[in-house]
Fold each of these.
Amino acid sequence: MTDEEELYLAEYSGRLVNELEKKVKELENEIAARRLAEDALRKSEEKFRNLVETTSGFVWVDKDGVYTYASPRLFDILGYMPVDALGKTPFDLMPPEEAERVAGIFTVILPGTGA
């Protein structure tokens, strides 16, 4: 190999090493940012869970009127295990006559809900 070829290879490999070092640093920064975001999310979820599970009321998160979360207090208040409420609506947990009565109220308050 000529001196010129060796010089070219040395310069080229030096540029490659620099590029790789930049990419490694970028990935390290992305990983650090993701870890911070995941840690913040975990702390936020823990705060929410502690709030929900220690409140004296029955707290739920519902999507389209269907329970996707029910606090442990559900058992104390209504006698249902929280897992038993998942996938149901509030009307499913009421006696049929009461569900019909409350649905009528909801229809007046929130027209178009189909309650």
Amino acid sequence: MSLQHNYLFRVLLTLDQTLNVILFNGGEDHTISGRVGHKAKTTGLWYWCVLEKLINTLFWFDPDHCRRSIENGAIFQTTTQQDIRHFLRLIVVALLVYLWW
């Protein structure tokens, strides 16, 4: 991987981790895909499963992307009302971005 691609990858990874903290109150070292994959796997709640399917569709070249992004040994908080608020916040942000484009 060239230095330019390595730099771009690190910038995108950092953005992904930052959005995980802002939107989901997730860990600063975890990606959105990993968090969604973990929540879909452990809770089975419909909204985590919908997000997992959506993200896996976006990463069509990487089947089961979310589940493979779960970091081993990661400690996640249990699903709470706060998780639901963060999910709704993500939907609002996605809609705003969509309307803005």
Amino acid sequence: MIIASPLADHLVEPTMMPGGTLASFFGWLVGTGTGSGMSLIILAAGLIGTFTSLGSYVFNSVRNVEDIIPDHDSALKVVMKETPLET
């Protein structure tokens, strides 16, 4: 997130202007001109997030996290049974 603004201003935005290097590849998708570089960065961030979450589904520990880790309420009940409150 910190590098998104300098990346957009100095690298992606100029190359997405009409006649720019990336305009011929991605111009049909996000357009060309002002704002198209930031659009390309947002699209890339969304795709990276999507593929990361889908890729993490490959690991059993991530896929079965609901079964592996107990719910907060049930863990609290166990702790309360072990250490009753003093009255």
